Amino acid sequence: ETGVTQTPRHLVMGMTNKKSLKCEQHLGHNAMYWYKQSAKKPLELMFVYSLEERVENNSVPSRFSPECPNSSHLFLHLHTLQPEDSALYLCASSQAQGRPGEQFFGPGTRLTVL
Amino acid sequence: GENVEQHPSTLSVQEGDSAVIKCTYSDSASNYFPWYKQELGKRPQLIIDIRSNVGEKKDQRIAVTLNKTAKHFSLHITETQPEDSAVYFCAAKGYNFNKFYFGSGTKLNVKP
Question: Could you give the CA distance from residue B57 to residue B49 in angstroms, rounded to a whole number?
């Protein structure tokens, strides 16, 4: 795949596990996002990184911990999750200059918390 | 903050008919309004967008209209085809270019 990639595509974990989601963008963008998509709910913005600095933390529980080591990579570290955290987690990226605003999404990680 | 509402939540049309999905937003400072199509099991993909200095934009069978005064924007799909069946999301970008607010989605079903 090109553009925005995410791994793993599917993840099943217990409430005591620690896991990480990875996102990589090959578009030269300088902003990256984590969204949570649950059934019958709008896309929920979780975190925004711009130029590798976190610029938005949308009241997300501390059991979700983002990391942006460089402009091409974004991680979401998970620990002691709850069953209600089961959802599709989407990564996206965008470019501030040029045509600001257009976001490109990754394929998502389907997370199931047992 | 911004609040985006989207209607209807489901829409069923016959192939060849038109489909209209409407969204309202609350923040008059919002200036960018994209529409995304998400097919089952796939990622959301941008299909059309409009900026606040434009009232209407068309791309083949798809058009978007924006009424800044009333703070609403709509997606119009003409001559619908079965492959148009998907969930459609509207969004509004606030003053901070990094923050997007999404509607709750419309599940469109085009019956052959």
Answer: 8
- Categorise residue B73: left if φ over 0, alpha if ψ from -120 to 50, beta otherwise: beta
The alpha-carbon gap from B70 to the nearest alpha carbon of chain A, in Å, equals 22
Q: What is the pLDDT of residues A83-111, one digit of tens each?
A: 999 999 999 998 865 455 688 999 999 99
The 8-class DSSP code of residue A97 comes to: S
| Chain centre to alpha carbon of residue A74 | 7
CB contact under 8 A, B100 and A103: yes
Distance of CA A90 to the CA centre of its chain: 5
Amino acid B34 reads P
Give A70: exposed, middle or buried? Use CB within 10 Å, 0-12, 13-18, 19+: exposed
Whether A98 and chain B come into contact, CB under 8 Å, resolves to: no
Nearest to B85 by CA among B38, B17, B20, B16: B38
Tokens 């083949």 belong to B60
The angle subtended at Cα B13 by Cα A105 and Cα B111, nearest 5°, is 85
Contact criterion met (CB below 8 Å) for A37 and A44? yes
pLDDT in tens, A47-63: 988 877 777 767 789 99
Joined tokens for residue A91:
């990564």
Q: Exposed/middle/buried for A49, CB within 10 Å: 0-12, 13-18, 19+?
A: buried
From chain A, the residues in CB contact with B25 under 8 A are none
